[in-house]
Amino acid sequence: MTAAGVWARGQGFFRRTLARRLCRRPVRMRNTIPLISFTFDDFPVSALTTGGEILARHGIRATYYAAFSLMGQESPSGRVFAPEDLPLLVQQGHELGCHTFAHSHAWTTSPSDFEDSINANTASLERLIHGAAFKTFAYPLHCPHPRTKRVASTHFSCCRCGGQTFNSGVADLNHLDGYFLEQSGRDLATLRDVIDRNATANGWLIFATHDVTEHHTRYGCTPEFFSQVVRCSIDSGARILPVADACQMILKGGSAAAQR
């Protein structure tokens, strides 16, 4: 590995460590059954029309994290939702979560600009769906700077990151671990293993991806693969809920305390 590669790896480790250890909002998980949530970042249209259709066959609701500046545009994860897609999302009972307005980088954006982007996204939602409000958040592009965690914690019941693991024991509501399907190598055996371990631990596994289509981007997966993950999740005996509902279930069974 080159010196630049070693530096980049070390910098990434340093950032991830700070993101996990500082500005925490811990909650002890006392749920007696495992939980699973399905989330889609950037809200590509295919995540609702194809991914949502797969979920609807099983009566499952998901969370779609939207950045309204991307609305109607082509993105690295495909065509992003348009205003006319929102009634279907509401009709199917899914949660619409916040991803900042400008898809702001969670580490390099200043805390004040990051909060402005959260507020702009909230205002956009209110213009499109009267009386609607975001309850949960997903950090765009990177793990969050600790000061960004502090800002986000004042707006949302919980905030999801990455991490490729599930939440168990004591979870950080400002930095919930997520598991990106595309980072699994789209290997079903790997996914079965994490689903089984989540079930054994009575954990909370938050799956994340982007587009769901036969010709998916590097950030998405095929409908067949997504269907298999959904089926394995159901077979594990987990209760499958949108992030906001799962968070409420955790809070009702535990206690949260800020550490800022």
What's a concise summary of this model?
By secondary structure, the protein is an alpha/beta fold.
SSE layout and pairing:
Blueprint: H1 3-21, E1 26-28, E2 35-41, H2 45-49, H3 51-56, E3 63-66, E4 74-75, E5 78-79, H4 86-91, E6 95-98, H5 111-128, E7 136-138, H6 146-153, E8 158-163, E9 170-172, E10 176-180, H7 188-201, E11 204-209, H8 223-235, E12 239-240, H9 243-253
Parallel strand pairs: 2-3, 2-11, 2-12, 3-6, 7-8, 8-10, 10-11
Antiparallel strand pairs: 1-9, 4-5
Helix pairs in contact: 5-6, 7-8
CATH architecture: Alpha-Beta Barrel
Oligomer: single chain
* Tally of helical runs: 9
Query: What summary fits the major beta sheet?
Result: 8 strands, parallel
Radius of gyration: 17 Å
Share in β-strands: 15-25%
Order of helices and strands: HEEHHEEEHEHEHEEEHEHEH
Q: What's the average pLDDT?
A: 93
Protein structure class: alpha/beta
Plain-language structure description:
By secondary structure, this protein is of the alpha/beta class. The protein has a single domain, classed as Glycoside hydrolase/deacetylase (TIM Barrel), CATH 3.20.20.370. It is 38% helix and 18% strand. The protein is built from 9 helices and 12 strands. Strands 2, 3, 6, 7, 8, 10, 11 and 12 form an 8-stranded parallel sheet that branches. It has a two-stranded antiparallel ribbon with strand order 1-9. Strand 10, helix 7 (188-201) and strand 11 form a beta-alpha-beta unit. The relative contact order is 0.21.
